[in-house]
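pinning this so it doesn't scroll away 📌
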Amino acid sequence: MNELVAILEDEPDMRALIVAALKIERFRVHEYCDGRGFLSSLATGKPALAVLDLMLPDMDGFEICRWIRSDSCLSPLPVIILTARSEEANRILGLELGADDYIVKPFSPRELAVRVKTVLRRATPELVRVRIDADDGLIIDANTLEAFADGQRLELTQVEFRILQLLASRPGCAFSRMKILDYLWGNEKPVTDYTLSTCVTSLASWASESLVFEGWVIGSLPSPMR
C-alpha cells in the first residue's frame, strides 16, 4: 500500500486504534487532533485519503468536509467520516457534502482498513476518463469535479456528479439502482431509494434527453453521449 492517510480524531485511544489498524495494512499515517492543524497541513502536501471524525474540538467535521469540496485543488481528496452520530439525517448530510463513506462508532478496525482500501480504489475507477466531452456540449472534468452543459457550469452535489460521471462513461449502457449504489458506496449503502431518485431526477431536469428512470433501471444518456 504505502499510501498516506490522514487521521482526524481528538480521542487519543480511538486515534491509536485507527493508526494501528492502518499500519498493519502498510499505510503511512499522519495524525491530527483538531481540524485547523489538518487544514494547515494541506498547504504543504495532500494525503491519499482522510478519515474525519465529526466531533472535533475546534471545528465541526461537516465544515471541514465542505471546505475540502469547495477547493478546486483539494476536492478530489477522498474522505471517510467516522462518528458516533448514527442518525440517517447525519449520514445523508455527510454523503451529500461529498464524503466517500460514513462509518458509525463502534466499528471494527479491520472493517475500517477494508473500507479505506475500497474508497481508494474507487477514487480512480478505470471506467471513468479524466475528462469526458460529449457531442451535445456536456463536459465532465474529474480533476476539478465540475460539469458544464453548453458552457454553463452545472450546480451538482458530489453524489449527482459521480452518478453523471458513471452514466457518461458508458454510453448506451443501463444501470440498475443496485449497480449505481455499488459504484457510489460499495457494500455500504447508507442512503434511501428516495435519495437516489432525487439525484437522478435532478440530473434529468437539464438533460437534453431525459434519463430513463423506470423500475429503478437508469440508462445513460443515449445518443448525445456517443
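📌 and the second one:
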Amino acid sequence: MDGLAADNVWNDAILDIQSGIESAPRGMKTREKINHTTMCDMRYPIVTNTRRLLGYKFMIQEAIWILRGDNRLSTIEPYSKMINKFSDDKYFFRGAYGPKIIDQLQYVCRSLKEDRNTRQAVINIWRESPYDTNDIPCTVSFQFLIRQDKLHIIANMRSNDLWLGWPYDNFNFSMLGAYIALLLKDIYNIEVGLGITTINAGSRHLYESNFESADMCTRSNYEDYVNYKPLNLKDYSSAEDFLEHLEFVSLDKGEIEEMKVKALDREYGKGFAHEFFSKAE
C-alpha cells in the first residue's frame, strides 16, 4: 500500500489525535489537534478499512452530487439516513459545496492556464456572516497548484471530524482535483498528473463517542484492508467521461441489468476502484 494512501494517512491521523488536547464544543467532549494537516496521494483516496463500516454508496454519490453542482436534499437523501437533519427547509442545503464550486471552476481553470505557477487558483466555500442554519460549511476554501506537472489541491477547513468526516472529505476533494485536471485538458489541452490532497483543519478532532471505535481501527490487520485500482486520468477521455464513470461504478450488477445500462462502453469491474465499489454497501 502506498505510504500516502488514504488508509495509512487516516490511521496515522487517528494515532496523532489520540494525544491531542481535550475540548468540548457544545458540551461534547473531544480529543483535538489545532491546525492539523493530512496529506494523501490523490490516486489512492479511499479509506477501505472494513472495521470503519463506511457508506460507500453515499461516498461516491456525494462526490457526484458536489461535482454536478447540486444542493437538493432529494438527490442525496436516498444514500444517507441522517443527512436530512442538516437541511433547514428539507429541500435545499444552505452550505452545499457544489453550487459554490461550479460557479468558480471557470476562473480556476483559466488562472491555471494563464500561469501554471499561479497561487491565485482558489475556490471560496465559506459564506460571510452565515445566518443561523443547520448547515454551516466545514470547508473554508480550496487552492489548486500545479507543481512539477502535477495538480495539487489544498483544502482549508475550520473543522474536521476525523471519524465521521475525513474519509468522505478526502475522497470528495480528491475527486474535485481529478475533475479539474481533466477540465484543463478538455478546455486548454493542458495535461497534468495527480498530486497530493492536503487538508488543513483549524480543529481536527475525534468525539468521545468514537474513541473506542477509532482505536480499534488502528489495530487492524492486513486482511482488514482492500486493494483497488488507483485513479489514473489516462483512463478518461474527458471530465464528463470521468463523472459518468463515477456514476457507473456506483451501480451494482443487478441495477445495471435492470436498467439495461450499456455501461457507457465500460467493462463491468474495470477502471478506478470499480470492483471495490461494486462490492461495497
